[in-house]
Amino acid sequence: MIYHGLKGITCIETAISHIDGQNGKLIYRGYDVKELVQKQTFEETAYLLWYGSLPNSQQLHQLSEQFKSNRKLPTYVKKMIHSLPVNMDMMSVIRTTISSMGNNNMTWKPTIDQAITLTALMPSIIGYRKSVLENKSFDENAAKELNHVEYYLFMLTGAVPPKVHVEALETYMLLTLEHGLNASTFSARVTASTESDMVSSLTSAIGTMKGPLHGGAPMGVISLLDEIAASQSAIKVISEKVMNGERLMGFGHRVYKTKDPRAISLKKVLLQMLGEDQWLDLAIDIEETAISVLNKLKPGRSLYTNVEFYAAAIMKAIDMPPALFTPTFTASRVVGWTAHILEQSENNVLFRPQSRYTGETIKQ
Ligand code: CMC
Fold first, then answer.
1. CA 214–ligand 1 middle distance (angstroms)
2. Which positions are catalytic residues (predicted)?
């Protein structure tokens, strides 16, 4: 029996997260993410994923300070970012830059300190590259006291961000920190299983995340909503697409057979922002129309809203440029990847599946 794409195969045990696709639940280390987004910050949830429990105030203070003190890009890294071709996409820039961080402090065996350093650097890498392309000056010390999500937005705009934007982005990032054994996490664990270092494992994961079948879906939601906004009838656009065999971006999921819990939490944030942007109102209107068309034209397939639908609307609402959608997903998922790399290293078994040979027999 061949399990193409390892579909349906269980090959690791993990205590980091659990996805209950039938009941629409996502659990990080025993906590429902719907609850975590209401009460916890990015830093607190990252601590939970790395250490296995929520931090007390002293532990949180220490982690926040570690984030702040690890934001500085080394001079050679800045020079390298400057020298990369201007037409290189941001995911390739992140992959190349993270790869360049491999040094004597980053050797096997992976540590939580390494995970914190690499996570703290993500906003600096993305923000610095953006500022280079836009020919703006960059001062990574200017936002010393900002928390991780505020700092990320600061790095993109050069200004202290509005609270509502921080809350929206923090909810998105917290909901996408971790999601079981998806393709990029699997990649990270395979590399870690060879006892290669954390930087190499992350480089594998980022390369995997870059592919459109994994990290690149929100752009399709933007196009769908733009098309509907330009037409007279949402129901007509949606029905025609489904009847023509097209996939509605932001709907359906391999694991969730009901509404994706991450979409439900993002929608709550969006409802607080209604009226700020006509786009948001449109997204809310379209969701139910799309679900009912899918239910009618694709009965029994259990097609509901996935995280990408509201992620796209939120990104647009906080003025995140589309080219930074997947990089932003990467800046949050680095926490899940590093948690998995640490877990793999604690109880390591080298990944080495079998393949069936379909080539020619030995030539005489
Ligand atoms: N729009 C229209 N029809 C759909 C859709 C959709 N979004 N998704 C699935 N279907 C139909 C599909 O055409 C097929 O119909 P039929 O039985 O007539 O051939 C049936 O549903 C089953 O499709 P499938 O590809 O076997 O289902 P899957 O569970 O393997 O697909 C999916 C999951 C996410 C690839 C798919 O739902 C899809 O392409 N959605 C649109 C892209 C998207 O929003 N991706 C982001 C997913 S969330 C990412 C994350 O969790 O990180």
1. 13
2. 253, 308
Q: pLDDT per position in the chain (364 positions), as tens?
A: 999 999 889 999 999 999 999 999 999 999 999 999 999 999 999 999 999 999 999 999 999 999 999 999 999 999 999 999 999 999 999 999 999 998 888 999 999 999 999 999 999 999 999 999 999 976 767 788 999 999 999 999 999 999 999 999 999 999 999 999 999 999 999 999 999 999 999 999 999 999 877 887 677 888 888 898 888 789 999 999 999 999 998 999 888 988 899 999 999 988 888 776 677 788 888 999 999 999 999 999 999 999 889 898 888 888 899 899 999 999 999 999 999 999 999 999 999 999 999 999 999 8
Question: Domain-by-domain residue ranges, the chain?
Answer: 17-162+180-214+323-346, 217-317
Question: Is position 253 annotated as part of the catalytic site?
Answer: yes
Residue 308 designated active-site: yes
ipTM: 0.98
Q: Which CATH class is domain 17-162+180-214+323-346?
A: mainly alpha
Q: Which fold has domain 217-317?
A: Cytochrome p450-Terp; domain 2 (1.10.230)
User: 8 C-alpha vs ligand 1 centroid, how far in Å?
Assistant: 17
CA of 84 to the centre of ligand 1 (A): 36
Helix pair 307-317, 218-230: axis angle to 10 deg: 70
Ligand 1 pocket mutation, candidates 301, 328, 333, 337, criterion most atoms within 8 A of CB? 301
Give CA–CA dist 207/187, Å, rounded: 9
How far is the C-alpha of 155 from the C-alpha of 320, rounded, in Å?
A: 12
